Structures are given as structure tokens and as C-alpha cells.
Amino acid sequence: MKTYKSINLEKVFNKTMVNKRIHDGIVYMEDTTGEFSWNKGYGGKELDSPMLMASITKLLTTACILILQEQGKLSLRNKISEFLDQEHLSGLHIYKSKEYSFDLLLSDLLFQISGLPDKFEEKKSSTKRKVINQDFSFSIHELLHWAKELKPHFIPRTNGKAYYSDLNFDLLGEIIEKVNGTTLAEAYQQLIFIPLGLKNTYLPQSENDFIPHIYYKDKVLNRPMFICSCRASGGAVTTAREMMIFIKAFFGGKLFNKIIFDELANYNKLQITMGPISYGGGYMRITLGGLLMPFMKKGELLGHSGSTGSFAFYYPQKDIFFVGDVNQFANPSLPIRLSIKLALGV
């Protein structure tokens, strides 16, 4: 039976939770077999407490795309114009006076190598700034309109270039609906939640669905309209217990043949604001070691974090999965730093 020093994990957890910006949190760790299992909550948050997945939702979207590819319903080499309205795509990606909108592939979206901008973070009028002050909804057509007002960052598939943009996954969500012939919520249910027996994980459809609040510094934000609009890029709700089931299935081959990871493990460094994160085919990679962590043997965390403090990572070198939430919208680096410290702790 595998054993780890839980006292190290306790220290990491307690030191993180004393941050004055953290009001509640949960960490849950297990190995593949479940022989090793450790969890701890703070501020009343427990294994079955609802939590926003935020950008971990992108792993749900990735899983659906890979499942549909296995079913022969699409290919990562398909152009997105085969599935999306050409009128809406027109003018989306114009770089140095040349249009690339109709050259975009599904893989460009999945690997974050489309060059498309991100309205959520860019400019002073970013949606992130706006959502701190008010709740609002938006449609995919509004997202496309906003993106057309911004400049793409590079030609799609430029060697070594990647740029994190929620729009890439919002477009993948539209493609899933088109190919599967269902809503995105129904696709998640059919392709992921039912096969894995997840009963407390869902994509909210309206303000009547329960949506957990989030914190921005000390301010409580209730943003049901915004969360319902995020959909494929960041709209799902789950619990730590069920997120563990999902992340194990994602990397363990229970949803799709994990041999696909040979193809997905083509990583590019993201923009500088994303810190040490590289992006592969639908998931993040954080390399452990190098100048930032000179005492750490080389390894990597694979998975995703969310802007509201959520995280779900696999540490292959130790066969450990980390999931949890620190519920803080003001500092998206918190879950990354915590995940790295937990890796050091085991």
C-alpha cells in the first residue's frame, strides 16, 4: 500500500488557508487505485459541497470532442467551417489584412493555437472586469462580435505559439451541439455524467439552477447569468468527490482511448500572463523543476485550473490526482501554486 506523509499535506493546506482572501476551500487527493486518499476542508466546504468548475469545464468539452472523434462523427483535422455558420465566422480571424477564419481546424481550438483573442481578459473593457461589478448574460453571437473587435495574436498553427482564449472552447461547445444533435448540457450528461455515475455534476441551464457563489477578495459574487453563459469554457458545477471521479476517468481511459494522449501531448507555452503553464490538446501542463523549483525532480502536472480557484491535476510521476477549490476570483494563480506545493508535499 502506498503511503505519503500527510503531515506535509496538512502543512501545505493550513498555510494556504490562512491567506486572508480565502474564505472556504477543499483539497482531495488520491492515487489511481484509491489505496492512498487524503482530503481536508476549510470554512465549511466538504467533499460533497457544490463548487464551480470554471475552466476545468474545458476538460468536459475536451472529453466530448475526443469521444465524438472515436465515434467517427468528427476529426480534429476538420475545419470548424464544416460545422459553424460561415456568416458568423466571417471576419473572426484577420491577421495582417489576411483572413484565416475559414482555415481554422478543430485542433487549433483544442490546442489553443488558433491565435484568437480572449475578451475575458483583454483590454480595459474585459468581461472579467465587468463581471466583478454586475451580473450579465451573453450569447455565442455576442462573443463572436466582441472577438471581431479585437486583433488575433498570430496566424493559426504558428510554430511554438499558443494563446489561451475561452472563445476556442466556446466554439468547440457549439460544434459538440451540432455533431451530437443535442444541447451541450445533454451532451455532457450523455457522454460523461451518466457513464461515470455523476449525479451532482451539471451544466446550469437557467438562474433557477443552483449556482454556488464565488468570492472576489472579500466580496461575495452571485453571477448566475454569467455562469450560464460561460457554458463550454467554464460553466459547469460539481463537487470535489465527483471531480475526482472525472479526472481519473479523463486520464485513465474510461471515457476515450488514452492512447490519444500521444497525439495530445504536444505542448506550447501560453502567453506570459499565464505563468508557467503550457497547453496541450485540451488541457494544461505545469512543468515541475527548473529555475522556479530547483530542488524538485522533473515531473509535470496535467489537468486544468479555473479562474475562481478550482483545480484538477494528475501528477503521473507519483500517480497522484489533486482536485479542489480555494474559491477566490481575485487571484487565479492560487490554485496553481497550491497544486505545485501539494506535489512537493508528496
From TrEMBL:
Q: Where is the Beta-lactamase-related domain?
A: 46-331
Q: Which Enzyme Commission number(s) are on file for it?
A: 3.1.1.103
InterPro entries assigned: Beta-lactam-related (IPR001466), Beta-lactam/transpept-like (IPR012338), Diverse_Enzym_Activities (IPR050789)
Superkingdom in the source lineage:
Bacteria
Q: Does the keyword Hydrolase apply?
A: yes
> Is Nucleus there in the keyword field?
no
- List keywords of the entry alphabetically: Hydrolase
Q: Which GO terms describe its molecular function?
A: hydrolase activity
Any coiled-coil regions, as ranges: none
Q: Which PANTHER family match?
A: BETA-LACTAMASE-RELATED (PTHR43283)
Instruction: Supply the name of the protein.
Output: Serine hydrolase domain-containing protein
The organism named in the record is Psychrobacillus mangrovi
